[in-house]
Every structure is written in C-alpha cells, then in structure tokens.
C-alpha cells in the first residue's frame, strides 16, 4: 500500500517501459533520441523520481505513441496538465485540497469505469448539494463557511465525469445503512433518495442495494473504489479511504482480491431493478411520513 503519487509514478514508469519495449528501443537508445542520459530514463521507468509532462511527451513522441486517449492518461499520471497544456480544473483549489484528494480526483477524471462499495455515505458522484454540505461539515471539524462552500463546490464539480463524452461508467453497491443514516435531516435525505433514483436510471450508472438481510459480508471491512482505465489495464488501482489519507493498491493480487470481493457483494445485493424499486419505495415512504 502506498500513497497516490508514488503509485502513479510507478504506474507511469511501468507503462512507459512497456511502450519503449514495444518500440524496440533500449533505455540507452531512448535516452539518445530525446537527448538525455540513460539514468534519467531509468529513474522515470522505476518511478524513483517525479516526471514532468513535457518529458513524458518527448518519450511518447520518441516511441511513436499517437493514441490520444493513452497520451492524455500518461500526461495526467505525470502531473497537472492535459494534452493541450491546460491545467486540470481542480488545481485551482490546490490551496484547499490535500494532495491525496487531488490525486484521487485526477484518477477519477481519467478513469473509464469505477466500481465502488459504500458502507456509510452516498458516493460523492451521486450526492446532492445539501447532502454534500452535511457530510462535509460532519467529516471536517472547524470548517468556516467559505471553505465549506469550496469543498462542496469541488464535490459537485467532480460529478461532471458522469456527464462527459464518453461518461465514466459507475458500478456502485450501497449498504442499506447508507440509505437509513439520517444525514442532514429528513428533507435532505428525501432529496438524496430522489437523486439516487434518477442516477439508477442512467445508462452509465449501475446501483445495487446490499440489504441488512444479507448479514455479515466481505464489505464490512470498509468502503473501497476500483478505478479502471480503457487504454491500459495495468493502470487499474484500488483506493481505500482513511480519516487523514487515502491508500492505493496496485498489485495484481490486490486488484484480483478486491475485484472478487466486489463481485461477491454484487451477488448478495439486490438486482439493479429491485434496487431501483427499493430506492423509490423508500423515497415515497419518506414523503408520506409526517
């Protein structure tokens, strides 16, 4: 387990090494092509040093990589700029967001799909503004209103990935506790349930409810997210959230274990159709409650 930036460097290095090999170049030949010392190429490929996006562009050009999506992903892993040189939107908030959160947003923005188990709160990509405000206020003590507004703004901006072209494909299993926990009060929860019903009807979103009747399950150890990337499956990563940081798992054994765990959770959860009916019924019951 490592923090996000280290994982991203290693993943970037491994992919660049694979691209170099496919181009039929040794590290020394690659270095000569871009005018570097061989040791710099080696440091980049082993992830022992940070890499500037401009350096990644040089290597991608030298390796003849013209896949726009793959290039954009490599540049995102390298730092803060997109292929056209524009900074990612979240870097405007670098003074407010911790590095691990910025790293999470970066991965989320570049992923083609995510699988997530949530055991406590609604996933950030599906939260209403009022719910996001209530959760953020509870999770971060001593927030002044300006900083709270900024963090909620970031949370809502992240949701654009579900409206992108192509959109992020989201597969979420929600423990029933997520839906029963009174966050922000009855009105906020009623609105949040309506939002979940709307989300469950989107073609890019698959929601399943894991009912209390399922009993103990593998997800009791806590929530997790699996990010997948269409351009390079070796870049897939598992993210575990903790109170003060996020941890990233990149080993194939870890990815396999969490993938199997997620599949088991889906098997124990209500089907997407039954989950939609459950969410709608729960929302209607809240509306009818005095």
Automatic annotation (TrEMBL):
Record domain HTH cro/C1-type: where: 16-70
InterPro entries from the UniProt entry: Cro/C1-type_HTH, DUF5753, Lambda_DNA-bd_dom_sf
Domain of life assignment: Bacteria
Entry-linked SMART domains: HTH_XRE
Entry-linked CDD domains: HTH_XRE
Biological classification of the source: Bacteria, Bacillati, Actinomycetota, Actinomycetes, Kitasatosporales
Gene3D superfamilies recorded: lambda repressor-like DNA-binding domains
Organism: Streptomyces galilaeus
Protein name as annotated: Helix-turn-helix domain-containing protein
């Amino acid at each position: 387990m490592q923090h996000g930036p280290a994982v991203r460097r290693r993943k970037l290095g491994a992919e660049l090494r694979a691209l170099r090999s496919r181009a039929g170049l040794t590290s020394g030949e690659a270095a000569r092509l871009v005018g570097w010392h061989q040791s710099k190429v080696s440091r980049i490929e082993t992830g022992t040093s940070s890499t500037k996006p401009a350096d990644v562009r040089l290597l991608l050009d030298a390796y003849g990589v013209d896949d726009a999506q793959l290039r954009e992903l490599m540049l995102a892993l390298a730092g803060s700029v997109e292929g056209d040189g524009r900074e990612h939107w979240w870097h405007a908030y670098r003074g407010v967001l911790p590095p691990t959160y910025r790293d999470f947003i970066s991965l989320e923005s570049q992923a083609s799909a995510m699988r997530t188990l949530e055991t406590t709160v609604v996933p950030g990509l599906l939260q209403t503004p009022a719910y996001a405000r209530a959760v953020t206020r509870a999770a971060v003590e001593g927030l002044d209103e300006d900083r709270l507004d900024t963090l909620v703004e970031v949370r809502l901006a992240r949701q654009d990935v579900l409206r992108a072209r192509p959109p992020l494909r989201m597969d979420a299993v929600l423990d029933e506790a997520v839906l029963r926990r009174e966050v922000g009060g009855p009105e906020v929860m009623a609105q949040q349930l309506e939002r979940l019903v709307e989300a469950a009807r989107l073609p890019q979103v698959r929601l399943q409810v894991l009912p209390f009747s399922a009993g103990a399950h593998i997800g009791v150890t806590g929530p997790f997210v699996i990010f997948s990337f269409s351009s390079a499956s070796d870049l897939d990563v598992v993210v575990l959230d903790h109170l003060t940081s996020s941890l990233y798992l990149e080993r194939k054994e870890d990815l396999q274990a969490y993938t199997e765990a997620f599949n088991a959770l889906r098997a124990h959860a209500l089907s997407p159709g039954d989950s939609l009916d459950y969410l709608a019924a729960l929302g209607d019951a809240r509306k009818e409650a005095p």
